[in-house]
Amino acid sequence: MTRALMKTGRPIYISLCEWGDLHPAEWGFNVGNSWRTTNDISDTWESMISKADENEVYAHLARPGGWNDPDMLEVGNGGMTENEYVVHFSLWAISKSPLLLGFDVANATATRAVAHIVGNEEVIRINQDPLGVQAKKTRMMGSREIWAGPISGYRFVVMLLNRADAGDDDTVTAYWDDVGIPAKSLVEVRDVWEHKTLGRAVAGNISATMPPRSCKLYILKPVG
């Protein structure tokens, strides 16, 4: 199939799917542009977060022209909360995974309800960043996690994740060491879900307090 598509002379994206059984991340780059790393997703938090975990194992094998695919997006199908869908879209974006919409886009009500999520251009640009490096978990503290990775222009994406199932709001902190930034750097912080840049450069770390099953997503740019 790969050879046949190449012979057409047209740019065609080929997606491989054998549900990750034979670890296609280890060999798929030679025959396709993306490969499923997991079994099928369903529209629940438990399914979604487990697929992100399984996909992250192969982060070091993703690169321009070949991407890890933890299955389509469930955003808009109604099985998760808005915060959970934001986590879902954020994880797929920073993982450089294909952003394949899995809801009925002809359903105007469903489309309006999630347009601010799936249409967030700042998050999509992270997914499409030309550097093509998949973010990884860099710190885990119980239900608190840091996911981070470099993007083009000497910038970094960092996700603060509270994956607790219930309970009070919790504070998650990412230190520059977690992200790959020199510890003494001053850093410009852009919140890509709030579409706001913090008014001053930040030293040492970034923190956010959030409810269970929610996240914050930032672009960090060292400036001094």
UniProtKB/TrEMBL annotation:
The keyword Signal applies. It comes from the Eukaryota. Pfam families: Melibiase_2, Melibiase_C. It is an enzyme of class 3 (hydrolase). It catalyses: Hydrolysis of terminal, non-reducing alpha-D-galactose residues in alpha-D-galactosides, including galactose oligosaccharides, galactomannans and galactolipids. Residues 45-70 form the WW domain. One of its GO terms (biological process) is carbohydrate metabolic process. One of its GO terms (cellular component) is plant-type cell wall. Keywords: Disulfide bond, Glycosidase, Hydrolase, Signal. Its EC number is 3.2.1.22. SUPFAM superfamilies: (Trans)glycosidases, Glycosyl hydrolase domain. One of its GO terms (molecular function) is alpha-galactosidase activity. InterPro entries: Aldolase_TIM, GH, Glyco_hydro_27, Glyco_hydro_b, Melibiase_C, WW_dom. Belongs to the glycosyl hydrolase 27 family. This is Alpha-galactosidase. The lineage of its organism: Eukaryota, Viridiplantae, Streptophyta, Embryophyta, Tracheophyta.
